[in-house]
Design a protein that fits this description.
This protein is 39% helix and 9% strand. It is built from 8 helices and 4 strands, in the order ααααβααβββαα. The structure holds FE2/S2 (inorganic) cluster.
Length: 193
Amino acid sequence: MSNQVSGAQAFDKTQRAKIVFSDEALKTVQKIITRYPEGKHKSALLPVLHIAQAEFGGWLSPETMDYVASVLKIKPIEVFEVASFYSMYNLKPVGKCNLEVCRTSSCWSRGSEDIVKYLEKKLGVKVGETTSDGMFTIKTVECLGSCGGAPMLQCGSSFHENLTLEKVDTIVENYRMEGKQKSYTDLDYKNTL
Ligand code: FES
């Protein structure tokens, strides 16, 4: 059996017509899948979820996860188990700038809680919420591997380290002025996979 996949494979197009990889994304998915033997498509799940998140609005809806399951020929629950485990996957819509504040020990001991509280007050939303203009989401995450720069936050592919309240002001204002999408999916997966 070949490793060829189709964007519409085992997928109910009548119900979820929009959830189909673009040709370019599908080509990349195909390339990833061929790294693994037939029957081991699940091994491609993490990178394929990154592509799905980038393709379908910056988050993984149940329909998107079902679609990924159909493409990889695995069960939807297997996709959900992985997508719900890792903080880089969003299971609900996020703002243009997804501010992911690390809350693990190094960052916590250097004031990450204050950073979160400050962001909540500044943006008028709680952790897990998105501002009404759709610009910012605040999220707390576990160690992002940048403990030497604690406290820190990630936004898109950028790390902001050694945070102070003043730095947070600058970061937020810069993103607001830029007004561009800065979710984790901004990573150029075509070059990084
Ligand atoms: S504890 Fe925050 S980056 Fe490691």
